[in-house]
Design a protein that fits this description.
By secondary structure, the chain is an all-alpha fold. The protein is 71% helix and 0% strand. It has 2 domains: 47 residues, Orthogonal Bundle (Arc Repressor Mutant, subunit A); 127 residues, Tetracycline Repressor, domain 2, CATH 1.10.357. The protein is elongated and about 60 Å long.
């Protein structure tokens, strides 16, 4: 049986979806308990429009997760090609820490939607981003050779356990200093 051709998404629908995701990103950065109504209002759309794009809060959180993690992955490659390896790694880690604030409030939903991470299509690309940065540092001599990206990911996972609020950015910076210190080569 022939499937009917899929219709292209209208430009206004794509614009609304992008506005909703941007508003949700801001709202969840402020509070993981932001309501769907407040997100719709912030996006300048009706609640019905929000629910047409994201029929449940979980769908919105998962879509936002995929968008945010892709930005982090893409940034690793851009930094690796434009900065010295150690600086690229540190700047990328800082962005991972910023992303951790989002994931802190959304971890349970993401975990459930990705079957505990087993079905997460972003896992391998994220490891690849870590690997690219580590390989550049090892080739240049500032980072130890043959570091397993999964080991670094385990170290970074502590970032999404830091509750947002006063002192959270400073704590993340201290933790990242420790991680980088452990990755560096010694004179």
């Amino acid at each position: 049986m022939n499937q009917p051709p899929q219709r292209a998404t209208r430009a206004d629908a794509r614009t609304n979806q992008a506005r909703i995701l941007a508003a949700a990103s801001e709202a969840f950065a402020e509070s993981s308990s932001a309501s769907m109504t407040s997100i719709a209002k912030r996006a300048g759309v009706g609640v019905g429009t929000l629910y047409r794009h994201f029929p449940a809060r979980e769908a919105l959180v998962v879509a936002l997760y995929h968008q945010e993690i892709q930005k982090v992955i893409d940034l690793a490659h851009a930094l690796a090609s434009s900065l010295p390896p150690l600086e690229a790694l540190r700047r990328w880690f800082d962005e991972v820490a910023r992303y951790g604030l989002f994931k802190y409030g959304a971890a349970e939903v993401i975990h459930a939607a990705t079957n505990g991470g087993l079905d997460d299509k972003n896992y391998e690309p994220f490891l690849g981003a870590i690997g690219a940065l580590l390989d550049a540092g090892a080739a240049e001599g500032s980072l130890k050779p043959a570091i397993d990206p999964e080991d670094v990911l385990l170290q970074l996972s502590v970032l999404w356990r830091i509750p947002p609020g006063p002192g959270s950015e400073e704590r993340a910076a201290r933790i990242l200093d420790l991680v980088i210190d452990g990755l560096r080569t010694r004179a």
